[in-house]
């Protein structure tokens, strides 16, 4: 009897150990599967498992393309909403600043359909390349100020209220005026400003600079000398210089050209 009791206790101990091991194994397997599914980016259920190989590849290709789809929609409706009450929420001006960029992009695309900014493209580089022609190279500071204010409105935790938005709107109006000149500038230069690099137009010598030159009143008469002031590509260091091209007077005798020594 005592031997039977000892055998039964041994069986209970062994069965309890096996049961504990099975429970721990099942629990560990469930936890591992749970963490694996949580860290996995794909679907939990295999999609297209019973489909053809070509169809399955197409389904997987389209699913993998979803994270690369990016869009930048408008944040506020164009129509006045009765849900926005006075005083306006602090983020309202930030929303308007982001939507104003979409307005500027639409104006640029309307003037030149070839100029469209992709969602992942930098706004600063897009404006510098698109508005280079109408701004004539002198608007880089304006573009940088606008982009800095836009980034402040979108990302900076500092306050962006009515005063900041008014300053932002003034910069926006200047860029909109420059964008409206894209069509005329593109027609004059025969192409989009992003197709090829453009040169700045040459500056002409100002008449006021001529009057301030020493001896400007002693210029010779027109039939003896010609002052090349029109359509002359001068630099800033040449603004105080006058190029004189001698013109032969009708009364002067013609000078015979020297004979060509190589002529036969």
Automatic annotation (TrEMBL):
One of its GO terms (cellular component) is mitochondrion. Keywords: Golgi apparatus, Membrane, Mitochondrion, Transmembrane, Transmembrane helix. InterPro entries: C1orf43. It comes from the Eukaryota. It is found in: Golgi apparatus; Membrane; Mitochondrion. It is a single-pass membrane protein. Pfam families: NICE-3. The chain crosses the membrane at residues 6-28. General regulator of phagocytosis. Required to uptake Gram negative bacterium by macrophages. PANTHER family: NICE-3 (PTHR21425), PROTEIN C1ORF43 (PTHR21425:SF2). This is Uncharacterized protein C1orf43.
